[in-house]
Amino acid sequence: MKRFLSAAAFFATLLIIWEILVRLNIWSPVLVPSPLTVSEYLLGAVRDGTLYDAAIVTLKRLVLGYTFGIVLGLPIGLLTARFKVWQDTLGLLALGLQTLPSVCWVPLALIWFGQTETAMFFVVVMGTLWSMIIATDNGVRSIPPIYARAARTMGSRGLHTWVKVMLPASLPFIVGGMKQGWAFAWRSLMAAEIYVTILSGFGLGHLLHYGRELNAMEQVIGVMFIIVVIGLLADKIMFSPWERFLHRRWGTQGK
Amino acid sequence: MTVQTELANVAPSKLSVNAITKRFRTRGTEVHALDRVSLDIAEGEFVCLLGPSGCGKSTLLNIVAGLDSADEGTIFTDGKLIDGPGRDRMVMFQESALFPWLDVIDNVMFGLKLKPGLTNPERREVAHFYLKLVGLEKFMRANIHELSGGMKQRVALARALAPNPRVLLMDEPFAALDALTREQLYGDLQRIQQQRQKTIVFVTHNVREAVCLGDRVVLFSPHPGRIQEQFKITLPRPRDINSVDLAEHASEITKALKGHMKSDTEVAE
Predict the structure, then answer these.
(1) Those residues with Cβ within 8 angstroms of residue A69's Cβ, 6 or more apart along the chain or in another chain
(2) Which sequence spans correspond to the domains of chain A?
(3) What is the pLDDT of residue B265?
C-alpha cells in the first residue's frame, strides 16, 4: 500500500508540473498540450472505439509474430546448444542477426511482402526469433554438468533429460530471452506501423503517425501513453509471475 | 507393485572390480588415473576408498556408477557386467546436485518417476518414507535454496535411496559440510545403513571419516592410481568419530598414508 501511494504521488506530481508548465505559456499549446487535452483525446478515442480497434490490431500482430518466434526459437536454441553443426551454422547466423536492430528488417519486408500483414508478421518474428535462440543456447550452456549426470544415474535418458532437466534448468535464461524478445518485437512492430500504412488494419503506430500528420499533439502524446501502458501491463501480466516464481524457487534476488 | 513391496529391503549387491585401468589425456599430458585396480566388495559391505586427491578413487566410483567407462577391465554387480548407469546403483555427489527448479519432495520423486510399476500417489508415499528416514518430512515443500548444506545432503541421500538401489555410491558427500553437521550425518548414515542394508562405496580423503563409517578402508596411492593397502575395521557400531579406539585406527592408517607419500616424493627426487 505504501509503495502504491508513493508511486501515485510521484505520477501526480509529474502531472502537476506538466500542467504548471503549460499554464506558464512558455511553449505554444499546439506543441505542448495540457494533460487535460490529452485525456480528452484519449476519452474520445476510447468512446468512438478507434483506440480499442487500433490496440487490438497491434496486439494481434504482436502476439502472432511473437508466439511464432518463441515456438521456433526455443527448439533451435536447444539444437545449437547440443550439436556443433547447428552451433556453427544457425547459431552463428542468430548471433549475427541478433545484433541487427529489428527495424532494419522493415525495408526488406516491404519489398518482399508489400504492404501486407505478412510484412508485419515477418518483422515481429525477426525481432523475437534471434534473441530467443541466443538466450536458450546460453541457458543450456550455463547448466552445471552435474545435473545431467545426476539425472543419468536415476535413469533419465535422451528426451526425458532434455524436457525434465535441461529445459527447466535453463528456465531463468529462457524467461530472460522471452522478455528481451518481447521488447524487440514491440519496438520493431511500432517502427513498422509508423513506417508503413497497411490497409488491412490500423494499429497504434498508425494512430501515432496520423497524429503527426494532423499536427495533433494531444493524439501523439495520448497514443505514446497507451503504448507505454501496454508495455508495462505486458511486463506485469506475462513476465512478473514467472520471474517471481523463478526468484522464489532458485532463491535469487527478487522483489 | 505396492508401496510395501517397494519399501522392502532389496538384497545388497556384490561388486567385483577386475583390473580397471583408466587414463586421461589433458593438454598433451597423460594422467594414469587407475592402474589395474581390482577389488571385491561383499553384499552389504561398507567400503571406504581413501587417498590423497588424484589417486583415482573418484574415477573408480564414476566407473562403477556407469558415468565413465574404463579403458581396460570389467566391473560386475552380482555377476552382471556394468556398461552404463543403472537404478541398482545410485550416486550421491559432493555437491548435492539437487534440482533447484523442484521442491524437496519432487527432487526425491525424480528417480521414482522413472521407475515403472508405481502410481504417483504410491511414489509420493515412498518419497515421504525416505524423507522421514533422513528426518526432513517437515520440509517436503521447501525450496532447495532454503535448506542448509547438511539438509541438502540429507535430501540428496533420500533421493539416492528412494529408487531402492542395491548399491549406494558416495563421492565425498560430506566434504563441504561443517564438522558438527558432519558428525550428525555420520550417525544418520550408520543408522540408515543398519536399517536399509546397502552395499556402500564411499570416497573420502578424511581418514577418521573412513574409519568411522567403513567396514573396510581401501587406501589408494596416486600416480598411477593403485590400491596400496586395505584395513578391516571391526569396531562396534554405532561408532563415534571422537572415540579413542577410532583415533588409534585412524592414526595407523594415517601413518601408512604418510609413509607412502614420503616414499613417493623420494622416488620423485
Answers:
(1) A124, A125, A126, A127, A128, A129, A132, A181, A185
(2) 34-144+170-250
(3) 56
pLDDT of residue B197: 87
The set of cell numbers assigned to A132 is: 530467443
Distance of CA A160 to the CA centre of its chain: 31
ipTM score of complex: 0.87
Angle, helices B149-161 vs B104-113, to 10°: value is 20
Compute the Cα dihedral for B95, B96, B99, B103 and give only its sign: negative
- Mutate one of B91, B99, B152 to test the A interface: name it (highest A CB count within 10 A): B99
What are the average pLDDT values for consecutive 10-residue runs of chain A, which has 255 residues? 90 92 86 90 91 92 94 93 90 90 87 90 92 91 91 91 92 89 89 80 88 89 92 88 86 65
Alpha helices, DSSP H only, in chain A? 2-23, 35-47, 50-82, 84-86, 92-98, 105-113, 117-141, 145-153, 158-161, 167-169, 171-195, 204-213, 217-234, 240-250
Helix (H, G, I), strand (E, B) or coil at B198: coil
A152/B67 CB distance under 8 A: yes
B123-160 residue pLDDT tens: 999 999 999 989 998 999 999 999 998 999 999 999 99
The domains of chain B, with CATH numbers, are 3-268 (3.40.50.300)
Per the document, the length of chain B is: 269
Average pLDDT over residues B177-206: 90
CB contact under 8 Å between A250 and B100, yes or no, is yes
Residues 6+ apart with CB under 8 A from B55: B220, B221, B222, B225
Mean pLDDT of the residues in chain B: 88
User: Looking at residue B235, what DSSP letter applies?
Assistant: -
**Cβ contacts of B145 on chain A, cutoff 8 Å:** 249-251
Biggest CA–CA distance in chain A, Å, is 75
Q: Is B170 helix (H, G, I), strand (E, B) or coil?
A: strand
Q: Which of A149, A150, A251 sits opposite B146 (nearest CB)?
A: A251
**Chain A residue set in contact with B, beta carbons under 8 Å:** 146-147, 149-156, 160, 164-165, 168-169, 171, 248-251
Of B23, B14, B33, the C-alpha closest to B77 is B14
Q: Where are the beta strands (DSSP E) in B42-198?
A: 46-50, 72-77, 80-81, 89-92, 167-171
- CATH number of the domain at A34-144+170-250, out of 3.40.50.360, 1.10.10.60, 1.10.3720.10, 1.25.40.10? 1.10.3720.10
- Grid coordinates standing for B89? 546403483
pLDDT of B268: 45
